[in-house]
Amino acid sequence: MDIIPVIDVRHGVAVHARRGQRSEYRPLRTPLAPGSEPLAIARGYLSLFPFQTLYVADLDGIEGRGRHVELSRQLAEGLPGVSIWIDDGNAAKDPAAGARVMSVVGSESLSTTDDMKRLRDAEPDRYVLSLDFRGEGFVGPPALLEDAAYWPERVIVMTLARVGAGAGPDVQRVEGIVERAGARRVYAAGGVRNLGDLEALRAAGAAGALVATALHAGTITADDLVEIAGR
């Protein structure tokens, strides 16, 4: 099972995500790193475990304030061998992959017919799709959720209300997406608290999970990561 650590970035600073209420996010404080600089946080994650992939949310780009165009490059250069998945709100315009940087298309960023056409026309290995849920509702074009033909090879099930909330992942929703996903790899995001949650998601068919708060809080340990990675 793949565990992918998460960094949310606003104004160049890593912030602590809580329930998707982005106006309430504050600079991240963690025992894994001094300060809140994204590269330092990423290296703190790597001190726990040799993660192969890092997920980065550029909140300024997602919220339309202008994306941090150097962020993915800085992280890729500072983290040799680590792939960067970046959601900056722009990938719907040009879903494309680089050597080690992969665009994440968040469903909340899709709004026009042209966006959907680009998504359907893009190669399925060129980007990661995040199906974004806020509460019980899907955030994005209904057709995207209803028609799995739009989905690429990797799909994230993002339950925003559970991010940083300690409420546990939405295993049932993940299982439902897995059932429709065919051979695609499905990743759970939001609410993961401990090894038990990871085991429940694995049993539901998830190929991996995006995790942040539990790593900073120490409720998922280095030993847990070794154990779940071997399954």
Polypeptide structure, described:
The chain is α/β, with parallel strands linked by helices and 231 residues long. It has a single domain, classed as Alpha-Beta Barrel (TIM Barrel), CATH 3.20.20. It has nine helices and eleven strands. It has helices spanning 38-48, 59-62, 71-78, 113-121, 142-146, 171-181, 195-203, 213-217, 222-229; strands at 2-10, 13-16, 26-27, 53-58, 83-87, 101-106, 127-134, 137-138, 154-159, 185-189, 208-211. 46% of the residues are buried.
Judged by helices, strands and strand pairing, the structural class is alpha/beta
What is the radius of gyration? 16 Å
- The CATH superfamily is Aldolase class I
Provide a count of the helices: 9
Largest sheet: 8 strands, parallel, barrel
Large-scale geometry: globular
What is the CATH top level name? Answer: Alpha Beta
Proper CATH architecture: Alpha-Beta Barrel
The total number of structural domains is 1
- Overall mean pLDDT stands at 88
Q: Strand tally, please?
A: 11
Output the strand order for the largest sheet: 1-4-5-6-7-9-10-11
Q: What's the helix-strand series? A: EEEHEHHEEHEEHEHEHEHH
**Residue runs with pLDDT of under 50 for 5 or more positions:** none
CATH fold annotation:
TIM Barrel
The fraction of residues assigned to DSSP E strands is 15-25%
Question: Can you tag this structure with a few keywords?
Answer:
alpha/beta; TIM Barrel; eight-stranded parallel barrel; globular
